[in-house]
Protein: DUF642 domain-containing protein
Organism: Digitaria exilis
Amino acid sequence: MARHGRLAALFLLACFVSARAATAILDGLLPNGNFEEAPARSELNGTRVTGRFAIPHWEVSGFVEFIGPGQKQGDMILLVPEGAYAVRLGNEASIQQRLTSLARRTYYSITFSAARTCAQAEQLNVTVAPESDVLPIQTVYTSSGWDSYSWAFKARRSDVTLIVHNPGVSDDPACGPLLDSFAIKTLQPPQRPKSMDSFYLISKSDNMLKNGDFEEGPYIFPDAPWGVLVPPLDEDDYSPLSPWMILSSTKSVKYLDAAHGYAVPHGAHAVELVSGMETALAQDVRTVPGRGYRLEFSAGDAGDGCVGSLAVQAYAARGSVRVPYESQGKGGYVRGTLDFAAFANQTRVVFVSMAYTMKGDGTLCGPVIDDASLVGLPNRVARRLLL
Ligand SMILES: *[C@@H]1O[C@H](CO)[C@@H](O)[C@H](O)[C@H]1NC(C)=O
Ligand SMILES: *[C@@H]1O[C@H](CO)[C@@H](O)[C@H](O)[C@H]1NC(C)=O
Ligand SMILES: *[C@@H]1O[C@H](CO)[C@@H](O)[C@H](O)[C@H]1NC(C)=O
């Protein structure tokens, strides 16, 4: 009897484990996320997709084109970053896919590659209801013309629909953005790891910044060498680099990893401030008014050929510090420090690159930020800061 009971329990456990393993959505490409499964020829008129469900795993509406090898625009061949196929969204066109087996109340990031096809302010409206953001894609950060973008949402249900819509109304219907390679990643809730290397340790105080090492961020395609842009979002929306916010009207920051050969000051990931003074990387921290704090961070270069006199400016409360860094474009960093006294319950820590810089190929680049920490200072130090 007891033996049967144990076997039954083991059997149930095995079922439970395999059911979980079979259903949870995995990090990586969405089903047909790179559009390599093409529509039937009968559902294409030239490049135009004529059937709503013609592209396997996707649903389209409006003027959507299926772009294959050698497809031209004017006399230029359109390059496809992943495999042979991509899609193009005409005016007010959209594509959508149902995402299933999500964990409710969990945050996910979506990464996809996009290229604009005409020199104008193109945008993409990305939605997983009830969240929706219009991502600017007018600035090109790579020499290939393709950039990878990230976005995040909270799963309110286990089944949701991802919609990508081109809100554009251009005169030329062939001007819409090209899209390829959609992937998903489960985001872990932001943690506050123990600070290891701060000078003023107050009873082994924690790093008050969450995700200060930028280790938790959006999915990066194994075969896309150009990093992933984190575009500006409304402050209330969940960022793929949460709780870091990207504050800008149209410009992004770039998320990089050591696995693609970037020089990362600490850990496996860092952020490159590619948009000069137009973009701030910021995080709000709870503080005690009148108390002193020390912000420390690494400022350097990603070893990606961004040569020049770079500088990062950090701001917190009424304090700021400028950290200059001479970049040979081969990697390296310096440490910046800012001591400040808080005057409010909440203090916004902000990093800005002080100049536009370009690589040899004309693409935008800038300093990398990594390994940021914020710790409380002893009261005697705070009193000095307040003087
Ligand atoms: C294909 O598109 C052309 C141009 O829009 C149109 O004239 C033609 O009727 C379409 N063919 C079919 C089979 O729908
Ligand atoms: C973005 O798309 C969503 C869902 O399709 C829609 O509700 C929202 O109004 C759109 N926003 C803009 C600015 O077009
Ligand atoms: C700090 O928080 C308290 C309670 O949450 C609030 O009453 C007070 O106005 C806040 N002070 C500042 C300076 O934000």
Notes: Helices lie at 2-23, 379-386. The longest strand covers residues 178-187.
